[in-house]
Amino acid sequence: MRHNFRYDVDDLLAKDKAHAMHPWHEFGRSDHTLLADSEGIYVYDGAGNKYIDGIGGMWAVQLGYGNEEMARAISDQVRSMVYYSPWSMATPPHAEVSAKLATLTPGDLNRFFYSTGGSTANDAAVRFVHYYWNVMERSTKKHIITRADAYHGSTYLADSLCGKPGNDTRMERVTEWISHVSSPNPYRKPDGMTDGQFLDHLIDELEGRIEELGAENVAAFIAEPVLASGGVIVPPDGYQKRCLEVCRKHDVLYISDEVVTGFGRMGHFFASEPVFGIVPDIITAAKGFTSGYIPAGLTAISEKLHRDIVDKSGDSATFSMGFTYSGHPVAMAAALKNIELMERDRIMEHARATGDYFQDRLRSLADLPMVGDVRGVGLMGCVECVKSKTGKEPFEESLSVGKRIDRKCQEYGLILRPMWHLCVFSPPIIISEGQVDDMVGIMEKAIREVADDMIREGSWDGKE
Ligand SMILES: Cc1ncc(COP(=O)(O)O)c(C=O)c1O
Predict the structure, then answer these.
(1) Coil, helix or strand for 333?
(2) For residue range 182-224, what is the model confidence (pLDDT) as tens digits?
(3) CB under 6 Å to ligand 1: residues?
(4) How far is C-alpha 100 from the geometric centre of its chain's CA atoms?
(5) pLDDT in tens, 100-134
(6) d(CA 92, CA 447)
(7) Hey, what domains does the chain have and what are their CATH numbers?
């Protein structure tokens, strides 16, 4: 026990169950845990039990919990200038963070539009792309190409860009101008293909889709460099670069969704150029931008696109999109301090070294029962459980293998993100090697025990 909590856990959970709707609100669900405190990479439930936060809140809390300097920057900004309309006024942190970001983004991505999170950052990217092509008098360019297993958010538009399975199919989506190509998942590539052949196949598919739709009708391709919520899918080497080449050839804009891969998860502020060798036209980010301390998203747009609009239509052009809280001074102050601390404390260097160690240690789980694939890059990873290592057949969703492993991990003090038969990790990037060992040690024990339990119950035959 860390504290004598003043929370009445049962009362709070009863209120939560009666009135609060959580994301992906499950109408019958009643098993949320109450988290009441946090420090560093640890969170504490309402009874004071301590857990390693294996998922950084939700790919977000890069600097860990309870950072005093972040808290002070936020409270100072609240006191000095909490908010004013971004339509009519500039504020110091809004101006400063924009100038700072321009030094961190690749190429000429020097213009920043702010929103409240990753979904709205992607909405802004797509709305900007459509606006751009309209201004350029190429208004047939409307189609956005996205991928199976992608996750780009949950507004009406961002959700329509997703390709990750698992949504209730009775939700509505935009379909007329959104087109999905295959997931670049090497573990699930067609039988008999080498990685190189798989890469060619994906690139041919993308180019084929553009030709089929007509390049004059395709506005942009949107892609996470690593597909995060789809199960930490790391595309084959060279994939992003070749996709960009195809886009350039057909005058299709490239939006790189770095909501997860940005701000340190891969050891860089933006991973597109240093890790994947691409300078896209637009990059979106959120989550780690403020280390999760305050909601904020950003859409970084190239100077070229910005200039093209002005050249074509002069000063009368207006990108008619914005939110009450675009560039909110408190969020911008948090982002500025977050970047300052990341630079001062050499967090990127730490993330690269610890990321390599984490990948190494995670791969030690590959020989465990049920484990078909262990993948990841930097400080993001996934363990995929399958009925048989050779057949790669996933466990049925009804068996909730991921959830069972998560429950077992929680008994031993680790929270991960279960998704069907997958277990996903993205710890705070301040995590140490010793804490990585603790995490992987708990995971190993949990997988072994769940595998034994399932064999005992008869829900898995145990044959590899
Ligand atoms: C790659 C990616 N893009 C966009 C989003 C949406 O961000 P938000 O939930 O802040 O709207 C997410 C959220 O997990 C994400 O993983």
Answers:
(1) helix
(2) 999 999 999 999 999 999 999 999 999 999 999 999 999 999 9
(3) 117-119, 122, 151-153, 224, 228-229, 257, 259-260, 286
(4) 22
(5) 999 999 999 999 999 999 999 999 999 999 999 99
(6) 50
(7) 9-66+347-457 (3.90.1150.10), 69-344 (3.40.640.10)
